[in-house]
Amino acid sequence: MEILLKIVLTIIAGVIIAKSINMGKKRGKLFYGRWLLWIGLGSLAFVALMLFVLIENQVQSDKSQYIALYILIASFTISGLASILEYCLTKGEYSKDGLKYRTPWSGKKEYRWYQIDKIEYNQLMHWYIMHTDDGKKMRFSSYLTGVDDFIEHTLKMGHDIDNYIERDKSLA
């Protein structure tokens, strides 16, 4: 029964995320939907619960229990903060002239379309990688709101996408 519940919850989460990718999209803009913020806040809420357990001394005095709890606290804190940073700071704009893109990890990048040498799709990571004439890369997640319009625009600008397999748009 537990495995069935996990499968159902995973499918529900996947459908919600897929639907939110196109909700609130604005032509010429790329950004993450609120689902990413909720994941980050949920992770930090879980950290608060673990800290409460730790402070209230509800952990068995076995050393391995403490180690496991500290690892969980660290990993959920990192993933929660990373999700919130991605939600708040990852933004993109594109037009017929070029594109601007900013992430918390690689900073701000701005290019004209003629400066894009190659575009590929990494199916394992679900992102598009744009290689520029100065050797830099920009990665655009398939989970960004407006990414489908962005890819259409990119194709109209004359760029082919290597390893591109069209995603199942029945979920979007």
Key traits:
47% helix; 172 residues; elongated; alpha+beta; 8 strands
Walk me through this protein's architecture.
- It is a single chain.
- By secondary structure, this protein is α+β, with helices and mostly antiparallel strands.
- It is about 45% helix and about 25% strand.
- The protein contains four helices and eight strands.
- It has helices at about 1-20, 35-55, 65-90, 145-155; strands spanning about 30, 90-95, 100-105, 105-110, 115-120, 125-130, 135-140, 160.
- The strands form two sheets. Strands 1-2-3-4 form a four-stranded antiparallel β-sheet.
- Residues about 165-170 have low confidence and may be disordered.
Quick structural gist:
By secondary structure, the chain is an alpha+beta fold. It is built from four helices and eight strands.
Count of DSSP H/I helices: 4
**Major sheet summary line:** 4 strands, antiparallel
What's the mean pLDDT score? 87
Order of helices and strands: HEHHEEEEEEHE
Number of strands: 8
Structural class: alpha+beta
The main sheet orders its strands as 1-2-3-4
- Cα radius of gyration in angstroms: 20 Å
Question: Can you tell me the overall shape?
Answer: elongated
- Low-confidence stretches are 167-172
- As a percent range, the share of helical residues equals 40-55%
> Strand-residue fraction?
15-25%
- In whole angstroms, how far apart are the ends? 29 Å
